[in-house]
């Protein structure tokens, strides 16, 4: 590996993604429904965010049940026995409770033997943080096969009286299987970067059961929900995504022209187009599904990866740029050489295992 000031590049990490899956709740909430709840309208939401609809978890669904379904879909796409998974990492900022970790419930639900399991919370940057962790475990041979899940029930922490935030978020889960890279076969992690700036923590945050005093209470005198300075977050997001993406591409020894597909965090279509424009990526090489799911926080990138694979937008050997940004502030970029998933190579449709949950 070639050490750089900010990570490793050139020869990459000895890990690859061999399976990918997603699960979203059935219930669709349209912009028209939001018009009946707060002072907003479809035209504003579509123009300012690109979002047309989002999914909302059923009362009996939680981040662990959504994550288990996505995990099973990823296991199926990798064509592996879940008992061979020895590590489960769940990224979530909306856990079922303060503990145990959502990852342990997912470990049990998918039948992952006695795999080590823990959660990572880096808000919308959670999946990238969890994936980076799994890559280190696998590259160091501490884990043979890891399941990494991004899963969120954002509808449970949204302030449904705040039109500035409630139109943006949705529920869902995505997952990947991480295994060792194999000499002579496509698939590895070329570069990864994780960054944060806690001095800007109050731009985007949500209180919880351990928040002290008045800070725990929202303007309505109820338990506080997501609080965001949207305009400032927008500006930081574009700058950070551009800078980190360019750095990751350079660390991978590539140029933007080598990137077959960019799969960015899906928060706002305008953030994605501004980033793509400044990085020099045509939108045909950028995956966007924010129109259908809104911002599902740590689930956006694995959901998008699963859909890009299902849509035939990812081919073995493709260089894929992942980039995320969220509360913290916290952001990241990763360049992956896509391995291709076993199920798509075998032409086996996904969804069979997941349908059993
Ligand atoms: O996952 C990462 C974290 N999140 C993000 O990356 C989100 C980053 N921020 C954004 O996506 C955008 O800033 C928003 C979508 C949140 C807001 O868009 P904007 O273009 O920055 O709008 P704004 O906050 O500057 O508000 C413009 C106007 C305001 O009215 P006035 O003051 O001009 O009269 C708002 O009150 O739009 C108004 N507004 C709305 N109007 C109708 C704000 N929300 C709404 C709404 N419907 N839902």
Textual characterization of the structure:
This protein is of the alpha+beta class and 357 residues long. The protein has a single domain (1-357), classed as Peroxisomal Thiolase, Chain A, domain 1. The protein is built from 11 helices and 15 strands. It has helices at 31-35, 42-49, 63-78, 102-110, 126-139, 163-166, 230-251, 269-279, 290-293, 300-310, 342-346; strands at residues 2-4, 7-9, 15-23, 27-30, 53-56, 87-91, 116-120, 145-153, 171-180, 188-196, 204-206, 226-228, 259-264, 319-326, 330-337. The strands form 5 sheets. It has a 5-stranded mixed β-sheet, sandwiched between helices. Strand 1 and strand 2 (7-9) form a beta hairpin. Helix 3 crosses helix 4 and helix 7 runs parallel beside helix 8 (269-279). It is globular. The structure holds oxa(dethia)-CoA. Oxa(dethia)-CoA (UT7) binds at residues 40, 44-45, 48-49, 124, 163-164, 167, 204, 230-231, 233-234, 237, 267-268, 271, 295, 325-326.
How would you briefly describe this protein structure?
With 357 residues, the chain is α+β, with helices and mostly antiparallel strands.
Topology:
Layout: E1 2-4, E2 7-9, E3 15-23, E4 27-30, H1 31-35, H2 42-49, E5 53-56, H3 63-78, E6 87-91, H4 102-110, E7 116-120, H5 126-139, E8 145-153, H6 163-166, E9 171-180, E10 188-196, E11 204-206, E12 226-228, H7 230-251, E13 259-264, H8 269-279, H9 290-293, H10 300-310, E14 319-326, E15 330-337, H11 342-346
Parallel strand pairs: 6-7, 6-8, 13-14
Antiparallel strand pairs: 1-2, 3-9, 4-5, 8-9, 10-15, 11-12, 14-15
Helix pairs in contact: 3-4, 7-8
Bound molecules: oxa(dethia)-CoA.
